[in-house]
Description:
This protein is α+β, with helices and mostly antiparallel strands. Helices cover 20% and strands 14% of the residues. The protein is built from 8 helices and 11 strands. Strands 2, 3, 4, 5, 6, 7, 8, 9 and 10 form a 9-stranded mixed sheet that branches. The chain has a two-stranded parallel ribbon with strand order 1-11. β6 and β7 form a beta hairpin.
Amino acid sequence: MRGLTLLALFGVCLGQKPARIGPDGKPLLNRPDLAECMKRKSHMKVGNHNYFLSWREPWHKFEDWDWFNGRNFCRDRCMDLVSFNTPGEFEMFSEIMKRDNVTSIYTSGRKCNFQNKGCDAPHLSPINVNGWFWAGANNDRIAPTDRPAPGKSFWSRTGEKGEPQPDNYEGIKEGPINAENNIGITIEGLQEFHDEACLSVLNNKYNDGVVWHDVACHFRSVIVCEDSDQLIKLIASQEGVDVTSEAEEGTNQIDVDSLPNLPLTAPEAPRPVRQQFVQPPAQSAPQAQFQNPGGFGGAPRPGGRPGGRPVRPPPPSSGPFANLFGNFRLPFF
């Protein structure tokens, strides 16, 4: 029994390596790793995108992640958490979750709740309605949450309090705190650690079917990774290697032909221009995210996706976002 426990812990260590730490002590989003990109596992391929379903791979079957570490696991492999911004894509994964009896999955969906980074712009107010975006897909905006968006949004009509999602239940329940320099505080004055700023798909938790819920980003879940065009281009620029077709076949493959509601537009097809968050003039460096008063070791931090063409890493002192986001520009702020 002890041997099995050690083996399981060893598997977790292989799956979740520690995040890089910036000069200010804050964790950073991972840059893609060439070796990991070359051998990334694929359980299905739709269009030109490979998908990794963590529960189908033996090493990761019983492993779960918070949102930040889930993104880093994917990003190491030239992937990112799945973004349901392609017609029919969510319906496809809804069917997979039902077949595999998966309780929840993380997506790249995120709420713009950060201090000093433009999230308080008038066009994003209120942020629980207008501040949601796909961090893993060029920061495409998610439709406003206060009205139906058939085929685009699939928010639950119920949650902990029986109210439509997103309701920020945990964030409001825990309430505001006083903190020096507003570290760990959202633009609404709530605690970032408890703010329900991440988008998870839950499987009938509230007798509501397979639908979207806002959750605190320390929530633990299995993950779906999707090929990231931006990270694949970045690794090609930095390493001179095209890893687009280098994925290895994962265990327990999905029979794509058996799935209904295949995406009407393959992920690699050109997408219409969507409104994105606009970066305001340079301000002071962003505050630390998810400062956990209880000392939670895996607390997530905010993340962004590279926008535009890949660039070489700048020196740590260049730009207000250098320490937190490495070489990735943030077009949504």
